[in-house]
Design a protein that fits this description.
mainly alpha, about 75% helix
Length: about 180
């Protein structure tokens, strides 16, 4: 027996897709909840980038929608809701565009770090018309958290990208799933 699942029949296309997208979505949610007590240290950016590189743009875009919807089910509807529906897909687009251009982990760590730094600015731009607060003042009030977010994203990507990417690629290959 080559593995615990070696006796299982292969999943058919649509069922396989549902299982894959559900599993990868819940990993982001569990990762986020696990680290929730540490301000702005998260694996969400890391996982979205890794998923975009391994399973492709279309699947990762669906995963971002499932993740954001799950966040709403857990935390309720808030001012951040539409921002998540915009900013996580933006990261997926960025990672997908850079996929063939970035060859080394340090490149992905820089992208992830810069996204962490810019996350607060994106929310400031998004929130200002809704709250009436000045964009610059809003962003500056949280810049220390954005710097922590940048450093955390950089380190998480630098340490985890290669090992998690390798594990994910092996599992995807076992399931005979192509990148889309």
């Amino acid at each position: 027996m080559t593995g615990m699942c070696s006796n299982l029949k292969p999943l058919h296309g649509s069922v396989r897709e549902i299982v894959l997208i559900s599993t990868l979505s819940i990993l982001i949610t569990v990762g986020k909840l696990t680290l929730a007590s540490i301000p702005n240290i998260e694996v969400v950016s890391f996982l979205f980038i890794t998923y975009a590189v391994v399973v492709g743009f279309k699947r990762t875009m669906l995963i971002s929608i499932v993740f954001t919807t799950t966040e709403i089910l857990i935390w309720g509807f808030g001012i951040w809701t539409f921002g998540y529906y915009m900013f996580w897909p933006l990261l997926v687009v960025i990672a997908s565009v850079l996929d063939t251009k970035i060859k080394r982990t340090i490149g992905w760590a820089i992208v992830s770090g810069l996204f962490g730094l810019s996350f607060g600015l994106l929310f400031a731009i998004y929130s200002a018309p809704l709250t009436g607060v000045n964009v610059f003042a809003y962003w500056m009030s949280g810049i220390s958290f954005d710097v922590i977010h940048m450093i955390g994203n950089f380190v998480v990507m630098l340490v985890l990208f290669n090992p998690i990417k390798s594990v994910l690629e092996r599992q995807i290959q076992k399931w005979n799933i192509n990148k889309i």
